[in-house]
Design a protein that fits this description.
single chain; 181 residues; alpha/beta
Amino acid sequence: MGKLNREISGVQDGHLSVQINARSPLPSPLLPILKPFHYISRMASSGVSVDQECLAVYNDLKLKKKYKYVTYKLNPGFTQIVVDKTSEDKDYETFLRDLPTDEPRWAVYDFEFTKEGAGQRNKLLFYSWSPDGARIKQKMVYSSSKDALRKALVGIAFEIQGTDGDDVEHNNVLERVSKGA
């Protein structure tokens, strides 16, 4: 039988965070008990967790249309993904200016466009921004932590990865999004 390790990561907002690692498949009698914990955990492979405010702000953007975009970053200790900025500004260029040239970020943008024959559309886009000017360690931690945030944000239509302005330029994003719409 494989070795099973449990780690209590902490309690936040009344929720117990448990990480379960099995070196081999879980023994069948324990599978129904322990498998749900696998899906509840929002820990990335880097050990970074997602702050609950990230989900609340995302739902405000998605369901209430309160924001046009949200940017996310790691806290100074690289232990948690937190909200960096929210904005109601509909100008795409303003959004691009909010992506730093020397630090990675993640963002969700409510992208509106017109598709021929189908009218006005909008899609939620997840941006993984890792500029060339960022430090290598930051890029590595952001890259290994992205899935924790991405999986927590249900309803994303497309993922855009960018390292420079051309990757996230409006027309390039529009071309990609309109093909899949």
